[in-house]
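== Sequence entry ==
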Amino acid sequence: MPFKTISDFDDLSGKTALVRVDLNVPMNGDEVSDDTRLQAVKPTVDALAAKGAKIVLLAHFGRPKGQRVAEMSLKQVVPALAAVLGRDVGFAELGDDLPADPVVVLENTRFEPGETENDSLLAARYAAYGDVYVNDAFSCAHRAHASTEALARLLPAAAGVTMGRELAALDKALGVPLKPVVAVVGGAKVSSKLAVLENLVEKVDHLIIGGGMANTFLFAKGTHVGASLCENDLKETALAILANATKHGCQVHLPTDVVVAKEFKAHAPSRICSPDDVAGDEMILDAGPSTVETLAGVIAASQTLVWNGPMGAFEMEPFDMATVALAKAAGAATAAGNLLSVAGGGDTVAALAHAGVKDDFTHISTAGGAFLEWMEGKILPGVAVLG
C-alpha cells in the first residue's frame, strides 16, 4: 500500500508537527525499565527537527478508558524520553498553551473519552496544535482512534521514519515478496489465528505450523494426540484450511516426530516419538529433531520468511529445541544474505531473543495486534489514511 513519508513535506520552519508515537513503555516504579519504544521515536523526531519543525507527541499509556488516572500520566515518561532524544521535552495537557520546548508530550490520549471512539471533535482539538500530522506508531495502526485516524484526515499526513521502515519491510514480506515464501505460525490455539492461517495459505508457498496449533491439525488428520492441548471442535475448520492450501499450491508442514512428556514443566522426563505413538497420558510439547531438519531445509530453500509464534513450549527446556534450532537456521540464512526474514508478536520476539538471533532477522515487529491483523490481510486504518 503506498503511503506518504516525511520527505513529502517541504520545509517546516515555524510549523508544528503532531506525531503519534508509542510511549506505552514498561515502568519499574517511576523509572522506565525498557526504553526500546522511546528509541524508536528518535529517528522521526530528528528528521522533523531537521526540517525546522516544532514537535508535539501524541501517545497513550495503559487503558484508562476515558478517565484521568494519575498512574497512567505520560508526564512520568518525559525525563527518560528527553534523555533518549537528547533534547528538551516539555509536557502539556490537551487545551493548554504549548511550552516553548522543541518537543512537547501531550497528556495520555486515552484520558479523553472520544479517543477510542475516533471522535472527530477531539481530533479537531488535536489538529488545532499543528500544521502536519505524522503517524509513527505502527503498533496502534490497527485501531481507528481519534489520534490515529480522524486526525490524519484533518492535516497533511505521512508515516514517520520507524513506521515507514516497518511498512516497507512488511510489503517485501507479503506484498511483493521474493519467492519461495515460507511462513512459520505457532502458538497454543488455532482459534486465535484462524484468519492468519486462512490468509497465508493463499499467499505463501510453505506454511509451517507449530506449537499447540499443530496438535489440532494432526488430530484433524486422524492422529490421536493423547493429553496434548488440542481444539477438537475445530477439526472441520482445520481440514478446510488444509484443503484450501492444496487448492492454492501451499505446502503445509506439520511435525513428523514430536517430543512428549507427561508433565508440563521444565526438564520433565521426555521422549521422541512419531505423532501416531503418543500415549494417552502424554503431551506433545515440541517438534522433534527429524522435523526440525526437514523444516530447516525448507527455510534454507526459501527467499522470504514470515514468522509468528513458537514451535513448542519454548519457555521450558528442553522443549525450546525446535524453536531455537529453526530460529538459528533463519538467522544464519538472513545473515548470509539469502533470506528476507520478518517476525512479530510478543511470544515470537521473546523466542528469537531466547535463541540469540533477534538481531539477525531483517525486521522484528514489536507490534502485537497490528502485526497479526497485517498477517490476516486486513487493511489497517491508521495506515490507509496515510495514502
In short: The domain at 177-375 is CATH 3.40.50.1260 (Rossmann fold). The chain has a mean pLDDT of 96. The radius of gyration is 23 Å. The chain has 13 helices and 17 strands.
